[in-house]
């Protein structure tokens, strides 16, 4: 069987969408579901629905690799410190150890909910749920930014400006907000950054901690998903699509993360929230007009 270049091109589009949206507060999963439905990525070939789900998991791992590459020095230093602290009896590596503990603490709420409600959460992955997530998440983002962003300094408290200075309680607050991202369209980035605001983190640090939390959260969920796929559907087109998609998602994510943090140092996140609400309303209107079909 020859390669289906049209399908591979569609895969590249989805990978670009993943790279553009994974680390900004607009929901990468929501965009992949919607764009995939609009361009027919999930239909038209044998096993397309199964492969689309597999593809989305694999390219998300490409995005996670971008985090590891971009923040390699911090991550590797934290790992070294973590084990140095353990083997030195707590005499060295305290900062890196505390950072590792904070990541674990922040990951626990999503881990518990994810394991408990895995099937129900996967059942939500459809366009109709994404539209709800877009609109509700966008409104919530505006409210939380107005209530909490920069309010720490105004109350006489100094916001946390170094990701290694988080406390366990701050990490837990971020982790509790990360649970919101299990609804498709809510956005893991938006959820954790809102949690960071509530916890008293500066916006760039909230975004950076969000990147780090993505590693265990997405690797863990991806591992669960990868065990459940039917690999008998694989053909040459699907294999090429996976490889190319992984590379494209990695490269685009690498570029977007750096630009996003630079943006947050100067600008509010309101533009992302407004985009989400408008996109949700437009998609809902298109569904009412019969232009877009939503699975309820």
From TrEMBL:
Keywords from the named record: Antibiotic resistance, Cell membrane, Cell shape, Cell wall biogenesis/degradation, Hydrolase, Membrane, Peptidoglycan synthesis, Transmembrane, Transmembrane helix
Cellular compartments annotated: Cell membrane
Topology within the bilayer: Multi-pass membrane protein
Enzyme class name: hydrolase
Pfam families: BacA
Segments traversing the membrane: 12-39, 51-72, 99-118, 130-148, 196-218, 238-261, 273-294
Catalytic activity, EC: 3.6.1.27
Family: Belongs to the UppP family.
UniProt cross-references to HAMAP family, sorted A to Z: Undec_diphosphatase
Known function: Catalyzes the dephosphorylation of undecaprenyl diphosphate (UPP). Confers resistance to bacitracin.
Protein name: Undecaprenyl-diphosphatase
Species assigned in the record: Clostridium sartagoforme
Taxonomic lineage from the root: Bacteria, Bacillati, Bacillota, Clostridia, Eubacteriales
Originating gene: uppP
